[in-house]
UniProtKB/TrEMBL annotation:
Catalytic reactions of this protein: ATP + protein L-histidine = ADP + protein N-phospho-L-histidine
Transmembrane segments: 78-103, 115-135, 150-175
Region described as Disordered: 281-326
Keyword ATP-binding: yes
Entry keywords, A to Z: ATP-binding, Coiled coil, Kinase, Membrane, Nucleotide-binding, Phosphoprotein, Transferase, Transmembrane, Transmembrane helix, Two-component regulatory system
Protein's name according to its UniProt entry: histidine kinase
Species whose genome carries this gene: Streptomyces gilvosporeus
Pfam families membership: HisKA_3
Gene Ontology cellular-component annotations: membrane
Length: 461
């Protein structure tokens, strides 16, 4: 049975596997060749007295040395074979280097420990017996030297332990150290792969966050610009119609246009200010000397933080600085001032339109739905009557904006439309886990309905 556990892998010590046959490196092959040459010389030299003592020709002992000594060449591939060969030639009192190196290689390899212990024990016993017999013969040949009875056994045990214990212990230490290094290297490689995956995930999350932020900004810009500018266009048209007939009404409409423009500019400045703050914070983190993975992790963390409100409480706009339900009356009043016949009704106790009763994201979502619905009425159904209904239902708030048919039939105000209004409303509502429904009515108008759950986000009512 062959044992291959002692072979050194090419990557075990970080060296390229450029060695021949079973050697991982060329210098390992050179070392084994040198050891095998030394072992061969030793066995050949020791084979001569063995042949004399056994009454054999010298060439027999030398031939035995030439056969046994080169076995060290396979010590990394088959360490058990090397140890067995050293045990086999112990009676011939040859192969000391073969035994020492073989035991070291066996102990340092991945051969099961029970096999290592068995072969080490056999080596100890073989060395002890061989040494004992040899010393007894030497004492008998001397004749004049009579050592104590305990001398020969003690010396045999000492020689047996000296020839086996040091290489075995040193091999066990080297093997344990090698396995520890390999384990640490594997852990380091695993950590490196994990960091690479984390960096990739952070980059993906950062890209996702950027896309989400672009969508949110586009939706917010649409709400601000579309509503304010639509009202400004309506007021400008009315101003043009009454400029000569009713200067007082024309002046009032001009003031309203100015107010709308200022409000739009204010909201745009607020959004641009947030963008500038976010863009200025990123280089500050980079200038502190953080590396790329840390920067990506920071971006992902910030993206997750900014995305959480949109997933759980509306959108990143819900920080308390946006519109609230308390401003619905003003919103409706602006449309009414633009000539729309619009009625606001509030049902349910708790919240009404005075004071913030829900989380900022919930109130802003409801406000934006009403704002966009009224904007669409201005665009596509000028002159139509509209009704805004707000209902507080304990764990949810519902809003419905319905308009009748336009007094001008199918004609609209001629305002441009990107087709994103209904999409934006649906995204806002569904992001909170709500339900959004829109469509034409049987009377020829249009209805927009949204139900937004408040859950634990409710503060009052």
């Amino acid at each position: 049975m062959s044992v291959t556990g002692a072979r050194e892998s090419a990557g075990a010590r970080g060296a390229p596997g450029d060695g021949p046959w079973w050697w991982a490196r060329r210098r390992s092959a050179v070392l084994d060749v040198v050891l095998a040459a030394l072992s061969t010389v030793e066995c050949v030299v020791e084979g001569v007295p063995f042949a004399h003592g056994a009454g054999l020709p010298e060439w027999v002992g030398m031939a035995l040395g030439l056969v046994v000594g080169p076995v060290l060449l396979v010590r990394r591939r088959w360490p058990v074979v090397v140890v067995l060969a050293s045990i086999a030639v112990m009676p011939a009192e040859m192969g000391a280097l073969l035994g020492v190196v073989g035991l070291y290689t066996l102990a340092a390899s991945d051969v099961p420990r029970r096999i290592t212990a068995l072969l080490a024990g056999m080596t100890v016993v073989g060395t002890l017996v061989t040494t004992y017999v040899s010393m007894q013969q030497d004492v008998a040949r001397e004749g004049t030297f009579h050592p104590p009875v305990w001398f020969v056994p003690v010396m045999a045990v000492a020689v047996g332990l000296v020839m086996t214990a040091p290489p075995v212990l040193w091999g066990l230490y080297i093997g344990a150290r090698r396995r520890l290094v390999e384990s640490l290297r594997e852990r380091a490689d695993g950590l490196e792969r994990e960091l690479s995956l984390l960096a990739d995930r952070a980059e993906e999350r950062a890209e996702w966050a950027r896309n989400e932020e672009r969508t949110r900004i586009a939706r917010e810009m649409h709400d601000v610009v579309a509503h304010r500018v639509s009202l400004m266009v309506v007021h400008a048209a009315a101003l043009q119609a009454v400029a000569l007939k009713d200067p007082e009404k024309a002046s009032k409409n001009a003031a309203l246009v100015g107010d709308m423009g200022r409000q739009a500019l204010t909201e745009l400045r607020e959004m641009l200010g947030v963008l500038r703050t976010a863009e200025g914070a990123a280089p500050a983190r980079g200038s502190a000397g953080s590396d790329e993975p840390e920067r990506l992790a920071a971006v992902a963390s910030e993206a997750a933080r900014r995305a959480e409100p949109e997933a759980g409480a509306g959108s990143a706009e819900g920080d308390g600085d946006g519109p609230s339900l308390a401003e619905l009356a003003d919103l409706v009043g602006q449309s009414r001032a633009a000539g729309m016949a619009v009625v606001l009704s509030v049902e349910g106790a708790g919240g009404a339109t005075a004071g913030r009763s829900y989380a900022a994201g919930v109130e802003q979502t409801v406000y934006r739905v009403v704002q966009e619905a009224l904007t669409n009425v201005h665009k596509h159904a000028p002159g139509a009557r509209a009704r805004v209904r707000l209902a507080h239902r304990g764990d949810e708030v519902a809003v419905q904006v319905e308009n009748g048919p336009s007094e001008r039939g199918a004609a609209d105000a001629g305002l441009p439309s990107g087709g994103n209004g209904l999409v934006g409303m649906r995204e806002r509502v569904t992001a909170l886990g709500g339900v959004f429904v829109s469509g034409p009515t049987e009377a020829g108008g249009f209805r927009v309905s949204a139900v937004v759950p408040v859950g634990a986000a409710a503060v009052g009512g």
